[in-house]
Amino acid sequence: MRLTFLALCLVGTLFANPAAADLISIEITSEHTSRPLDCNGGGAALTMSGDQFSLMAVLFSQGGGFSPRCPYPAGATLQVIARWSGIDAPGSFIYQGQTGTFGGINGPALFVQFVSDPFVVPPVDGSPIVSLPFTLTASIGAAPGQPGPFDLHGVGNMVFTFVTPIHGSPGFPDLWNQGSADFVIATP
User: Fold this and answer.
1) How do the domains of the chain map onto residue ranges?
2) pLDDT, tens digit, for every residue of 7-35?
């Protein structure tokens, strides 16, 4: 019985997925988008870099997910989550001098997600700007002839700007009609 178990473990080790063992973990030290992301989608260019790594992607406005959707009631607690993947986030990267691409129909995909710390929506008569930490998690799958797969991660500061305050009437809350998040990682 023990010999059979050991033999199965050896066979499992020999035929294990080699890509899982080759996962390249990169701490992102610089990241920004070409414009703040908003509750209506994406539509921004994303750049990020880390040790011997750089990436450029397009975050298509219709393909991404940004939650929660607007409007935002004053006093509500929010946690902003923005994510894109697959053909909704095509682009390229350079790792140790080798170039790779992602986001095609049959190629590897980028998955990228920004998650803010929870925060309280300010009153419509207060400051429309909230600044707080966020985490970035991302991955790029492996493809023949290019480096990968990658596990990308980092922390930064999100500045959320609320716009178009709406004063509620009796029975209706005060609202911010829209808002946008600027996610930035900048390590000195």
Assistant:
1) 19-186
2) 444 344 333 444 444 899 999 999 999 99
